[in-house]
Write a structure and sequence with these properties.
Elements (H helix, E strand, L loop, with lengths): L1 E8 L2 E5 L8 E5 L2 E16 L3 E18 L4 E4 L3 E5 L7 E4 L2 E4 L2 H5 L12 E3 L14 E2 L7 E11 L2 E11 L2 E3 L3 H4 L41 E3 L2 E12 L2 H6 L4 E15 L9 H5 L14 E9 L1
Antiparallel strand pairs: 1-4, 2-3, 4-5, 5-12, 6-7, 7-8, 8-11, 9-10, 12-13, 13-16, 14-15, 16-17, 17-18
């Protein structure tokens, strides 16, 4: 069991610059961050004459928080999507709040967002001025999972051995930024769920996908998903040749094995349109449609003379 509470000062960050300077950001030692958490591992060993099983389970929990910063600032990529601010995790999601689809009644009552039309995406007016602006953006979700899990097993029975590794995480979020281009209801190469979009009052769709031509696709919690997943990371099955056979073949020992990596991933959020959540988590939990992890098979033999 490990418990830690660490402060990091003068951390390197990409600080935004006005575009008029010819640059978008610069790297600077900027602020202080606190990380505290706990890591725990338990191992169980079971033995019989022919059977041996080693099982190890670990879990970790980390809380990340900006303690001190000169000035809070937003991260902007075709619209604000995250913010660096005291009291919140680094690059915490900072988003508009999705509120269904715009109706004619909304427009008649003064709902205002440039490009709004009936059937377009609607956002919550958090400050009550009936106009959707950056003042209506708020902190929402965390790019960091609350818990990370690992479970490894090594089993030996007679001449056979088997190892299995499972990893998982829970309590975080991922932003499907690819919605800006690949999930915006274009006229070609759209996901099949766009068959459920708004078309008219008589065909309102499922209430999630707006009318084609909507110009209000801005970063919001509509594209924020749970980053929980369970992955069967690795399976390795082997057979050790009997000592008598290895000796006749002039070998001290020999083992044949089959290895499979990235066997399967179960994404807990069934609405998540991406394919590789883990790669997105290495990119600030922002998914631009990263490639899926390749499942690989290996068949081999280990020989010692």
């Amino acid at each position: 069991l490990d418990i830690y509470n660490n402060d990091s000062e003068d951390i390197l960050m990409n600080v935004p610059l006005p575009s008029q300077t010819g640059f978008t950001n610069y790297t600077a030692n900027y602020g202080k961050v606190n990380n505290r958490g706990v890591e725990s591992e338990i191992t169980v060993r079971i033995f019989t004459d022919k059977f041996k099983w080693d099982s190890s389970f670990n879990i970790s929990h980390n809380e990340n928080k900006v303690v001190d910063i000169l000035d809070p600032f937003n991260l902007n990529f075709y619209g604000i999507y995250a913010r660096l601010e005291e009291g919140y995790p680094i690059n915490n999601f900072y988003l508009y709040q999705w509120d269904g689809l715009v109706t004619q009644e909304d427009l008649d009552n003064g709902y205002s967002l440039p490009g709004s039309l009936v059937g377009g995406l609607k956002y919550k007016d958090l400050n009550g001025d009936n106009v959707i602006t950056t003042d209506d953006i708020t902190h929402d979700g965390s790019p960091y999972p609350k818990f990370i899990y690992g479970w490894s097993n090594n089993i030996i029975y007679g001449s056979f051995d088997l190892s299995v590794m499972i990893q998982a995480q829970s309590g975080g979020n991922v932003l499907f930024m690819a919605a800006r281009q690949n999930d915006n209801g274009g006229t070609s190469n759209s996901f099949k769920h766009w068959t459920k979009n708004y078309r008219s009052e008589e065909q309102p769709g499922d209430g999630r996908y707006p009318v084609f031509g909507s110009k209000t696709l801005i970063h919001s919690d509509r594209d924020l998903y749970s980053s929980d997943f369970i992955r069967l990371k690795n399976i390795n099955l082997g057979y050790n040749f009997p000592a008598s056979l290895a000796k006749r073949l002039r070998m001290s020992n020999a083992r044949i094995f089959l290895n499979v990596d990235n066997v399967n991933t179960w994404i807990m959020d069934k609405n998540y349109p991406g394919v590789n959540m883990e790669s997105a988590l290495g990119n600030g939990a922002v998914d631009y449609i990263t490639y899926p992890l390749a499942r690989t098979y290996s068949l081999g033999i280990n020989v010692n003379f």
